[in-house]
Structures
1.
Amino acid sequence: MKNYIKPSRRTENVTYAVRDIVVLANEIAKTGKEMLYLNIGDPNLFDFEPPRHLIEETYKAMLNNYNGYAPSSGIKSALEAIEKDAEKKGIKNIQDIFVTSGASEAIDICLTALLNDGENILTPTPGYPLYTAIQSKLQLFENPYYLDENNGWQPNIEDIKSKINDKTRAIIIINPNNPTGSNLSAETLKQIIEIALEHNLVIFSDEIYDKLLMDGETHISIASLNQDVPVVTFGGLSKNYMVPGFRIGWGIVSGNKEALKDYIDAINKLLRARLCANHPEQYGIAPSLLGDQTHLEIAIKKLTKRRDLTFEMLNSISGISCVSPKGAFYAFPRIHNIKDDAHWTLELIKETGVVVVPGSGFGQLPGTNHFRVVFLPPEEILEKAFKAISKFHEKYVDTFIK
């Protein structure tokens, strides 16, 4: 074809299941069908709001005309607040902190600054699809390790050990995990540290949901358990403070100073090249992390009720089982009696208008099928959606399986 513009090969395998499924959902919505969206983890679409002091300080910064460029690593008050919060979590030996456009940018920059063509990172499966998208962009070899559904979705340590090769540079953990809602135990984290030290791996610890835990669970930052292991801890305002649209995240680099020096220099080259994160929104970081946390108590109370409803109703469906999530606001139920969760999900959306994400979009143990649900909506919406799933699933098995 004349004047054909060929895209880069590095985009060929970039997918993002959470948003990709919306393309079909939008087409179904045009038919007038009522839609029930359980696919995107945006608390602001439902009855969750950010703390008032976060909004007021951000607004004040805009009125004071802090609307130009910020320092590439972030403003002083934000960096100091992030450091104090990290110290409260037990993270010591901090070597660098930087503010980014969402935790997503921090993850992208840190992976880009570390990895070369042909190298690999150990990626949790199931896990957040951003990591595999960046992996594809950087043209890395895939190296998934599996979480054990029979052990509360804790990482399978023996599987991790078996996947390490001479091109492995890092290991990613998502804690609490998206999409399963698991919270990693101290024992699991210590074993991961031992592996990282033995094989000279950087640990990337995504802790964006670290304050959203239920059942009295305690979150442990992996960087708090060892001062020498190189860790980049990712956080942000999006989930804990209910402002995903602010796009404010950060990275905290901790560990042995000499071992990390050149890597930190590389990260900062990329930070300078992209100028800075959103400036006025950074003034909301200190009041968020250091101010009143009442909104978290309210959010966790709501989430616990909705988690319980989700767990009970999904487990009552014949052929579906669900491990109870401990944190975040996702569940990752297993469908035992089908062959293809992507097909199941598409048929579910077309027939019922209930929008979930197929488990294959997050990765899963071969031979298993899952789907992810977001339990942010109020109980009446969740109840309606799960009743629709129950009816649909019985019909689906009769139509496509039996």
2.
Amino acid sequence: MERTINHLLSTGEIDKAMTLMSTNNERAEEALREYNPACHAINQRHDKPIFDKSGHLKRWVKRWKLPIDYPRYINEIALVFIYGRPVVWRQVSEGTDQAFLRFENLMKRLHFNARIRECKRLAGAETQSAMLFIPYRNKQGVADCRLRVLAKSKGDDIYVAWDHFGCINAFAWGYNTYSMEGTTIRHLDFFTDQRIYHAVDEEEGWKVTEEDNIIGKIPVVLFEQEKEWAGVEPLIEREEYIASRNADTNDYFSDPMLILDADIIKNMPEKNDENKTLVKQGGSAEAAASYLTWDNAPENKQKEIEWLQNHILSKTFTPNIDFDNMKSLSNVSGKALKQLMVLADIKAARHKEKHDELLDRFTNICIALIANVLDVSLKQQCDALVIAHEFQPPFDD
């Protein structure tokens, strides 16, 4: 597979090379639509037309559209419980102090803690993101490196070629730039462990330039997962529908109507009238005037909303952290508080199974970057350097 892709890229056959790679674009776009409250299905409700007896349109009655931002809340809680506090790095090997110090300095220069949180947040929201290492020479002519986070929401297209063992054989980054005339220029950058190919879509076809991959590894850490709210989409949609219908009902019934006795009914109130008066026939003198109010809100709807909220959060392993709940926990011990957050701990532990591997890959790329690009004098120490990582609990003791 790798030899085939390298051959196709070196001969400029970009379209054929792309057929050997997979992309997650459609799934990412679907997840992003659910992540954005403005794109929820509830927003497709139309206002209700009101006609007179002759069939002429009198006005439009607003129908409420109340999307609930569950996906963002669920995603942020999942992020906090795995990367809420920085990852701790430990040197396991001996005689590699200089290389490890260079590694720690590199972490600060790359703003690793911010970038890893960004990658996790994007992957939880759209199922995929990537961290790309880009070596370059700074203004002083010294080798340096920056990290770029790639995601569909940032305008990036991600393509991957896998081998039979689930390892990345090749990685491609698709993006657009714009010329001085305002035309769109399509770019595809391909990365293998030995070569990097830069393809530009020009009028006569793809123009390909290539260079050596001086890092010696595919300089990408790929984050892939299910969207954090997977499995509860119908529950979220149902709660949004009930909330929107309830808002319409409240507009209709929440304001009291004045009831007056009379021999005939003189008028009927309109739905949007603020001061509604209903004139009824007959009645005693003592009850000549009274108010009609909505005393019994539907209890079944309230119970269903509570059921939906409970299952949306519990089935996504998300604790219900809000001000009212936290007020009642002021005297709770740390151990008891941790037990209350056990759902989020379970979810974080599941994520760590994958992120352990991702952090190991990140470490290996950084060590190769130091040894082959940033400070070749430390290559011997880098070859012997072993770094372990440790996730921290999200809250202090």
3.
Amino acid sequence: MLKSIEGSPLYPIVNPRSVVFFGASNRASAMGTSQLLSLKVLGYQGAVYPVHPKETTVQGLPAYRHIRDIPEIPDLAVIVLTAPLACEALEECAEAGMKSAIVISGGFREAGPEGAAMERRLVETAKTHGMRFLGPNCIGVANPHQQVNTTFLRYEGNPGFIGLASQSGSYVTQMFHYLSQFSLGFSAAFSVGNEANVDIVDCMEYLGACPHTRVIALYIEAIRRGREFVEVARSIVPHKPIVAYYAGGSEMGRRAGFSHTGAMAGPDRLYDGVFRQSGVLRAQSMTELFDFCMALGNLPPPAGRRVMIQTHSGGPGAAAADACGRAGLELPEVSRNAVEKLSPYIPPTGSTANPLDITYSRNVMDYFLKIPKVLLADDAIDIFLFYILMPSDMVRASFRDLGVPSEEVEEKSESFLNNLSSYVAHLREEYGKPLVGFTYRSFNERFVAGLLEQGIPVYAGPERAIRAIQALVRYHEIKSKIRN
């Protein structure tokens, strides 16, 4: 694992102090223009130099005819040209003394023998001049912590803790909005494309040393350097988790991957073995990939696999218990001491078994303020899972029933729900145990959104919550074995 992130050849690619753009213009529909604007809109603070054969300004920036006309040697070149012109642009950058580039252009190995020959030309240029480049056939990088986004979609949300390396560009850009719904974001994200010069292993090394990255996510269609992948992953896993989604295991997946990036995929069982050997957790979908990341990046290590389920509805509790059983997790009995402490809060129709099912509350706030504290203090419990039903409209109705003036209802409801979510989130720090929620309500509900904003994972249904808990438990078991 890298000792210093600045020592990574990817550092100037994702932390450039200045960028030169080939392919941006004053035509708004051009892909290069979209990528330049994505960089500007995010608030990038470095110098941006468009190179254009005719225009004197591009999107309000002074444009240059040749890279040799630029007043400095930029840190990074972003090349969005046809494949033959991209080869020429990379050569010009290399001859000017540049060491880092992103080749967005397609039409290389994935397009056939002629494209493969041009890709070899890129590789030879980089080798001759000691240069590193991402791509070709990629969409670039995002590093919101440095206001860097060279992709064609605007970054949404805040900087986050998920480091992504993806052999699909779409799974970088299309995750911007998806992650923002859960108050998640990227620490850095790489679209590696054809991996002609920089590959997933290089990205893992960078993300392993990145101080903003708590968990590494991988979208994989093929691993080209198997031995190095295992070695690098095993060096990182004791310090931070790695989760991978492999999409090349079926015949149809292999064919799609080859037409996409020219990747030669292998059978599922082979990749299962690679992931087990390297300590990488395998997700079964992109949704699950980020479900796992949300838990792994937000929660403290569990002492074991004993899960306490709290609910006020029998069906969701039973479904959660079933999911726990299928995932190999345990449902401990609530201790006698805890049962005694719970007695003031549980009505006669409720159950103090596991799942703890309140059915209804004598005081609705006991569900969030009193009962979790008793359960989390129980030494028999490692992980706390709770069902969430706190509709914003019901809270507003309660304030109206209390006689709060209509013009104050929205503000008081939001303040109440924010305070409640803060209180529940604080329990994680107070007891040092993982807290996980699940709901069937909208994630726009203020209480749910408040929990997510404070790093408490909430999932749509118990099955997804339990799979994420299982990944959390497995990671800390793997981590312990690798260290020993």
4.
Amino acid sequence: MPKKYTDEFKRDVVAVVRQGGATQRQIAKDFGVSKTAVSTWIQKVELEERGLVSRAPDGALSTGDDGAALREALKRIRLLEQEAEVMRRAVAYLSQATLPK
């Protein structure tokens, strides 16, 4: 089970990474965390700064209305791609059935 780190600890690690002077890998090793965790924390901070996600009062990240619209659009795109694939297969099957033998 992954360790739980405080938000303050994560902010400190991200601040050290942003100061430069060492690689993320080295900083992660110095703080005793994985490089993946450090990368994830940096990405979350960058998303917060761009306004793509926000922090709820309980500290959890939440996406805004744009995030919900994007999820719906992606869901719709997946559905349309599946429908297009079914149509391609149907056309291929029916074209084989109409060819003279």
